[in-house]
Specification:
Helices cover 41% and strands 23% of the residues. By secondary structure, the protein is of the alpha/beta class. Strands 4-1-5-12-6 form a five-stranded mixed β-sheet.
Length: 256
């Protein structure tokens, strides 16, 4: 039989060994197709504001960061099945999404607008609802939900480049998306015009699986500290200067 003293030493050794182990990596899901928030640098490594945010958060939690690049529509299923710990992917907090997952406190705000081609005559939300006006949306985005809920005539694609091409080739009259992307699209694609007056404003949050109240409290504490330090303002200045200047050129402003 094992003596009581030996058993106690065995338990103590196990506890010490456990304390020496680092916690498993913080696995963050994002779609690396949305610069300057989620993208890749010249070396192919994840880069952007969301990557800065996830890196700082993992550091605060004392965990190694691992980023999983997933299609946007697959992020919530991945979170619900435990494939990832958090979603940090410019995801708008909506009542519909809250039925499936929880969110942190908002850390960013943006607006949904649209890009159209020169001469389309589209300038307002009412214009999008006119008979014969067909718009395109990216699957699973708030632009998609906006078109669906307002019963617009719309088609769904799964890639940003395809949506832009739809409008450039005049197969669709407008592409509904966030203001930042619309400005960038108009700058890169001659003949397209962004309409920046927001159809709606929307807060972004970090997605957290239901029941993870402990993790949500840690994330919220980090967001408050990051805001107090001025991290979000610094990241905006670092990554968004070009887009903010372009928006002014187009006669609008970007919410952030």
């Amino acid at each position: 039989m094992i003596s009581r003293r030996a058993a106690l030493h065995s338990i103590a050794g196990a506890l010490l060994a456990g304390c020496g182990k680092s916690e498993r990596p913080l696995i963050v899901g994002m779609e690396l197709d949305y610069p300057p928030f989620e993208t890749r640098d010249m070396a192919g490594k994840p880069a952007g504001i969301s990557v800065e945010l996830a890196t700082a958060l993992a550091g605060k939690l004392g965990r190694e960061l691992r980023i999983e690049n997933l299609p946007f529509a697959g992020l919530i299923p991945a979170l619900k099945t435990g494939k990832i710990d958090l979603i940090v992917s410019s995801m708008t907090i909506t009542d519909e999404r809250r039925q499936s997952i929880d969110f942190s406190e908002p850390y960013w705000q943006t607006g949904v607008g649209f890009v159209t081609y020169e001469g389309s005559g589209l300038r307002t939300a009412a214009d999008l609802a006119k008979p014969g006006v067909k718009v395109v949306v990216k699957s699973g985005t708030t632009g998609h939900f906006y078109a669906r809920d307002r019963k617009l005539d719309f088609s769904i694609v799964d890639r940003l480049a395809i949506a832009t091409l739809e409008v450039a080739q005049r197969k669709s009259a407008a592409f509904l998306y966030d203001q930042l992307t619309l400005v960038r699209t108009a700058e890169e694609q001659p003949g397209l015009v962004p309409v920046l007056d927001p159809l709606q404003t929307e807060p972004w949050g970090i997605g957290i699986a239901k029941g993870r109240d402990d993790l949500r409290a840690q994330v919220n504490a980090f967001i408050a500290e990051a805001r107090e330090r001025g991290d979000f303002a610094r990241w905006a200045e670092q990554y968004l200067a070009k887009e903010l200047a372009a928006a002014r050129k187009w006669g609008g402003t970007i919410i952030h």
